[in-house]
Amino acid sequence: MAGRTPVPGRVAAENRRARRNYFIDETLEAGIVLTGTEVKSLREGRANIGDAYASRQGDDLFLLNAHIAEYHGGNRFNHKPLRPRKLLLHKREIRRLIGALQREGVTLVPLSIYFTERGFVKVRLGIARGKKQYDKRATVKERDWQRQKQRLLRKRT
């Protein structure tokens, strides 16, 4: 439906693998530079940020590998689905994030793309460190134990 206003706080795309593959140390919100057809495509929920990451290019940060599908009514003015998209942050935040990215094993991953109450598109970014295979197994083991513990407590009462 063209012209549909986004629901406030509505998530357009989510990176579900991020918390499984990374330890998220900190999260922050950033604006993103988009074209009109990209926003319309996001309103339809046609985006994938599973392989996306943020990287430094010059003095700015860009979101790379984020796939926003072409808008079906976009004709020749449509956007490229995998183009780099500039992230909008304050200079101080950019400098801090670039410093964090220079540490070994740290990356900037998008956790979700969503609409604000005013209709702006925002990206929730996470400063992340990669998990090893044994870390992933330990996380699954802990989650299963918590689930089993809840079942036992429910049976008791």
Q: Which features would summarize this protein structure in a list?
A:
157 residues; alpha+beta; 7-stranded antiparallel beta sheet; 4 helices
The rounded Rg comes to 18 Å
Q: What's the CATH architecture? A: Beta Barrel
Shape: globular
Order of helices and strands: EHEHEEEEEHEEH
CATH class: Mainly Beta
Q: How would you describe this protein?
A:
The chain is α+β, with helices and mostly antiparallel strands. It has a single domain, classed as Small Protein B, Chain: A, CATH 2.40.280. Helix content is 30%, strand content 34%. The longest helix is centred in the C-terminal third of the chain and has 24 residues, at 133-156. The protein has four helices and nine strands, in the order E-H-E-H-E-E-E-E-E-H-E-E-H. The strands form two sheets. It has a seven-stranded antiparallel sheet. A two-stranded antiparallel ribbon has the order 3-6.
